[in-house]
Amino acid sequence: MSVTAILLLALVVAVAAFVQGASGLGFALIVAPVAGLLAPGLLPVFLLAVMIPLNLHIAWRERSALDLRGAGWISAARLVATPGGLALLWLIPESSLGLYVGLATVLAALVSLAAPAFTPGRAAYLGAGVVTGLTETATGVGGPPLALVYQHRPPAELRATVAVCFLTGELASLALFLATGEARASQLGWAALMLPALGAGVWLSRLVHERADARRMRLFVLGFALVSGVVLVVGAAV
After folding, report:
1. CA–CA distance from 119 to each of 146, 155, 217 (Å)?
2. CA angle, corner 33, sides to 31 and 35, nearest 5?
3. Which of 91, 99, 171, 200 is the most exposed place for a label (fewest CB within 10 A)?
4. CA separation for the pair 63, 76 (Å, rounded)
5. Cβ–Cβ < 8 Å for 28, 143
């Protein structure tokens, strides 16, 4: 990547870390399409690796609000579905990964916008875990199913529970990629390079996370995801 592309990616990572630190969601939806445009070969390992310290911090910061029951069911289903996500990745040619990331981003944003409010139960937790395991392992985008389950819960509960679910799944997916040789040192190196930008975004989120307007933040994330996802799809198709 050029210096300009590196700086752009760092800026996007910082903004996405701020958004997720404040709202509990949005990092992958913001970063994945941009990374797909700049360097699709980084996905999904780069995205999984750079999100681990982010979600570790958020989970610890919001630990008192964790929905332990929901996190347990989602994480169990997420772990079971992780090998299926790796199988999907094997079926997707690297040259077409940007197209699939864009489609997954657009579809996830549309579903999140259209879904009605509901009270989640065990079936919802398990379904969200399975879908997240498949999509996050294959493309790096896995937040929308969790957003559907927790979007009408208190913001602190959403941030804590989603962070724990993400963290569990990201560690499992990354371990599977390392064990099968799918993770490259360069992908992990780029994730390490983005840590200062990630830290800056998270630090700024601490200033506003208790008073951020969750509804406006969610609409911003989904709107950005729609636009960037469409750009990625169009770019891959031409």
Report:
1. 13, 15, 22
2. 65
3. 91
4. 19
5. yes
**Residue 67 structural domain:** 3-237
Using an 8 Å Cβ cutoff, are 163 and 64 in contact? no
Q: Which residues contact 118 (CB under 8 A, 6 or more apart)?
A: 124, 152
Match 């549309």 to its residue by tokens. Answer: 110
What are the φ and ψ backbone dihedral angles of 34, each rounded to 5 degrees? -70, -45
Contacts of 84 (CB under 8 A, 6+ apart): 133, 134, 137
Question: Rounded to the nearest 10 degrees, how much is the dihedral formed by the CA atoms of 113, 118, 122, 124?
Answer: -20
Q: What is the pLDDT of residues 185-233, one digit of tens each?
A: 999 999 999 999 999 999 999 888 677 666 676 677 677 677 767 877 7
What does the pLDDT look like over 131-150, one tens digit per residue? 888 878 877 777 777 777 77
Query: What's the average model confidence in pLDDT over 155-163?
Result: 88
Token digits of residue 61: 């910061």
For the whole model, what pTM was predicted? 0.83
What per-residue string of b and e applies to 92-123 under the rule 16 or more CB within 10 Å gives b?
A: eeeeebbbbbbbbbbebbeebeeeeeeebeee
DSSP assignments along 4-44, one per residue = HHHHHHHHHHHHHHHHHHHHS--HHHHHHHHHHHH-GGGTT
The answer to whether the beta carbons of residues 33 and 225 sit under 8 Å apart is yes
Residue 22: both structure tokens together: 């404040």
**Total count of domains within the chain:** 1
DSSP 55: H
